[in-house]
Design brief:
Number of helices: 10
Order of helices and strands: EHEEHHHHEEHHEEHEEEEEHHEE
Distance between the termini: 38 Å
Radius of gyration: 20 Å
Largest sheet: 4 strands, antiparallel
Number of strands: 14
Strand content: 15-25%
Helix content: 25-40%
C-alpha cells in the first residue's frame, strides 16, 4: 500500500476529522487510518499503489456538483429551500432525491429530518436541523450557503488542498460551516473569524457519515422532550447527560467510507456501554482497532445575545476505572 501522513488533519480537531472522512467519501480509492502517536493525525492510503495525495487533490468537488445538490436554494419546479424548512419543502426534496437517485441525497438527510417537527410557529410546521447545521448570523442563510461561500474561497485547489494536508494552510476571513471553535477569536480580540476553507468544504462531505434521525413526533422547542426528540449520528443523547456530546474515534486499520460507516455502529455500542459502566471495553476497542477518542466541548456564550456556535474537543479516557 502507498500511504501519506497528513499533519493538517489531526483527529482531535472535529472539523479536520470530518474533513478526512470527507476525502474518503469523495474518493472511493482512498483509505483512512490514524497514527497512534499522542496526537494522532490522518493517514491516507491506497491499495493499488496510487499516490494518495494526488487522489485527494483530484477529488476536490466542482462548483457544478455543489449547485446541483438537493439542498440548493432553487430547484426547478420546487419551492425554495432556505434555513426554515417546512414539511412540504422537505417532502419535495426527498421525492426529488428518490426520482433522480441523486448521488448527494445524503445532503438532505444529514441536514434536516421530518421525523422531528417543531410546532412553535403558527403558520407552518418546520423540520429539525442537525446539530452540525447551526443557524448563521447576518446574511449567512443555511448550511449549503455556507458551503458555497467556503468553496468560493478556493482559487487553486491543487495547491490549497496539498497545503492543508501538510498543515501549511493559510486561514482566511470567514465562518465556514459555522461550528469550528478555532475560528472564534479570544474575548479581548475583536478580529474577524478565520477558517481554512479547504477543511470546511471537505468537512461538509464528512457529514455524509452523520445522518439526522428523530422519534417521528411533533415537539415544542421549549418542551421537555425537545432535547432528545431528534439526534444526529455520533451524538450521545442519554437523558442522564447534562449536555449532548458528540464522540469520535481514531482507528489503526485503513478503511474506506463503508468501513468507517460500519465502525461507527460498533463505536456507538462501545459508547453506550461506557455511559452506564463509566469506562469503555478494552476488548471491544481492540477488536475494532480504536486507540483514541474525543468528545465535543461546546463553546460557552459570552452573553445572552451571543449566538456563536462552536465545538472544541476533550480527549476521552478510554481506560478509566480500576483494573
Amino acid at each position: 500500500m502507498a500511504s501519506v501522513e497528513c499533519p493538517g488533519l489531526p483527529a482531535s480537531w472535529l472539523n479536520a476529522w470530518l474533513a478526512a472522512v470527507g476525502l474518503i467519501a469523495l474518493e472511493p480509492r482512498l483509505r483512512l487510518s490514524w497514527t497512534s502517536e499522542p496526537e494522532p493525525i490522518a493517514v491516507l492510503s491506497t491499495e493499488d499503489g496510487e499516490n494518495p495525495s494526488e487522489l485527494a487533490v483530484n477529488a476536490w468537488p466542482s462548483l457544478s456538483r455543489l449547485d446541483e445538490m438537493p439542498i440548493v436554494e432553487s430547484v426547478s419546479g420546487l419551492d425554495a429551500m432556505q434555513r426554515s424548512v417546512s414539511v412540504k419543502v422537505f417532502q419535495q426534496r426527498a421525492e426529488f432525491c428518490r426520482q433522480q437517485q441523486h448521488v448527494d441525497s445524503w445532503t438532505l438527510s444529514s441536514t434536516v429530518t421530518d421525523l422531528c417537527v417543531d410546532t412553535d410557529t403558527e403558520t407552518k410546521m418546520t423540520v429539525r436541523h442537525a446539530r452540525l447545521d447551526p443557524k448563521g448570523p447576518g446574511t449567512i442563510k443555511w448550511l449549503h450557503h455556507r458551503l458555497l461561500k467556503s468553496h468560493s474561497l478556493i482559487t487553486n485547489p491543487s495547491v490549497q488542498v496539498s497545503s492543508t494536508l501538510r498543515g501549511h494552510a493559510k486561514r482566511v476571513k470567514g465562518n465556514g460551516l459555522g461550528f469550528d471553535v478555532t475560528r472564534i477569536s479570544a474575548l479581548a480580540d475583536s478580529t474577524d473569524p478565520m477558517v481554512d476553507p479547504v477543511i470546511e468544504v471537505l468537512a461538509f462531505f464528512g457529514l455524509k457519515l452523520l445522518p439526522m434521525r428523530g422519534e417521528g413526533i411533533e415537539v415544542k422547542k421549549s418542551g421537555p422532550r425537545n432535547r432528545f426528540a431528534a439526534r444526529q449520528r455520533g451524538w450521545n443523547l442519554e437523558p442522564a447527560q447534562a449536555a449532548q456530546q458528540m464522540t469520535w474515534p481514531a482507528w489503526e486499520q485503513p478503511l474506506d467510507f463503508s468501513g468507517v460507516d460500519a465502525l461507527m455502529d460498533l463505536w456507538a455500542e462501545v459508547i453506550k456501554q461506557a455511559t452506564h459502566t463509566k469506562r469503555t471495553s478494552r476488548t471491544k476497542r481492540s477488536v475494532i482497532g480504536i486507540h483514541a477518542a474525543w468528545r465535543s466541548v461546546p463553546y460557552e456564550a459570552r452573553g445572552t445575545s451571543d449566538t456563536t456556535v462552536g465545538f472544541a474537543s476533550a480527549r476521552m479516557e478510554l481506560n478509566a476505572g480500576r483494573r
